[in-house]
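Board notes, transcribed. Complex of a protein with adenosine-5'-triphosphate.
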Amino acid sequence: MTPDFADGTMRILLIESDPRDARTFAEKLRHACSCFEVTIEHDLDQALARPDDDAWDLILVDQVFPGCTGLETFDRALARWPEAAIVVLAPFADESMAQLAVSKGAQDYLVKKDMTDRGLDRALRYSMERHRAAAERRFLVHELEQSRRLEAMGQLAAGVAHEINTPTQYVSDNVRFLEEAVRDLAGVLTTLRKSADAGEAVSADELKARLDDADLDYLLDEIPRAVEQSLGGLTQIARIVRAMKECSHPSSEDKTPADLNACLESTVLVSTNEWKYVATLRTDYDDALPDVVCLPGELNQVFLNLIVNAAHAIADVVDENSGERGEITVTTRALDPDWVEVRISDTGGGIPASIENRVFEPFFTTKEVGQGTGQGLAIAHNVIVQRHGGKIGFESRPGKGTEFFVRLPVRPEVLEEAETRDEVCTV
Ligand SMILES: Nc1ncnc2c1ncn2[C@@H]1O[C@H](COP(=O)(O)OP(=O)(O)OP(=O)(O)O)[C@@H](O)[C@H]1O
Ligand SMILES: [Mg+2]
């Protein structure tokens, strides 16, 4: 959400425990710019309990409140207003505290007594601008990822259509056969009913001759088989359509518990046409894998990128005409109660040591124009590390193949706990 103070007013909530300091600072603010509209709160809990419809452009929060240590006041304000621009007001200069505040998302760390009117005006405007630019960047990255996701699904569409076409064809053939069979049986039954209506007795020989004409034994064998095959085909079509819907569903900002085995199953299914001509795909799912609180649509895209990369790597080394095939293996494991791991390995040519450090760079690709744009792994990195606090990496043996791994925390709280201990995994 980008802040908007098009009406020329910047709405500021000033949370300051000392009433005298608060008054003096509010005065300073109004003096710095008449566009600053300041609301003062002395009590942190009351400030945090203010209704949601108070739309603040900027929140100034005092670092020092009774009972709060370090950056606790800022942490609580950020948890309450995650979308707001927040500036910390400090009693005295502390460079390491200032750095920590900014790294946690504060727009600035201002030492109260040092601020001149002009300095304050400038600092708050710059804070707003930084906040606006960061929000716009987040929005654009999100838009880019959404369009890239739809583009990836678009590229799969022809393959998915092909996958649906095969069962559709044999369902149609079976239904046509059933139509003829029903017509033949209906013919026998109609003549029998006519005889019954006319009070004519039908001899056993005559009855047998009519049933033979309709080829009853063949029909009794084939009809159940045709029904079973049609139901199988329809189930397959429904599975593909469901998987396609799951994979192309616009991602939401809210994490939800998801079964990663099912996500992978859908992704494997919709990408079938990408790998089936060059590889056999083996899955080894951990039945005891816990649901992971995540953004399933985004994870599906990561898994899709990794499977398509694996298929491309194999296609580069096998001779399709000779019928030679490589192998892709998809594995899931619960590493411990808090973390799960997905591995996708291939028997392609491997990643040469010379480009190992570059594969996650945006737009780095070794593929020809039209084959790759170099965004797949950059997006995967962003989704796994930034969005989920997980880890993504690979082990590769040139000439033998590559194995990518994705490790994810089962619950976002694990991430938050890790963050407070500064232990979030990165590549
Ligand atoms: N499984 C793999 N085996 C060998 N090389 C790989 C593998 N996965 C990725 N790479 C290398 O990393 C590069 C970057 O991969 P990435 O998925 O980001 O982009 P891309 O596949 O080239 O294009 P895009 O995914 O945007 O269609 C690839 O061009 C390829 O050189
Ligand atoms: Mg790729």
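Residues 23 and 412 are 40 Å apart (CA to CA). Residues 420-427 have pLDDT under 50 and may be disordered.
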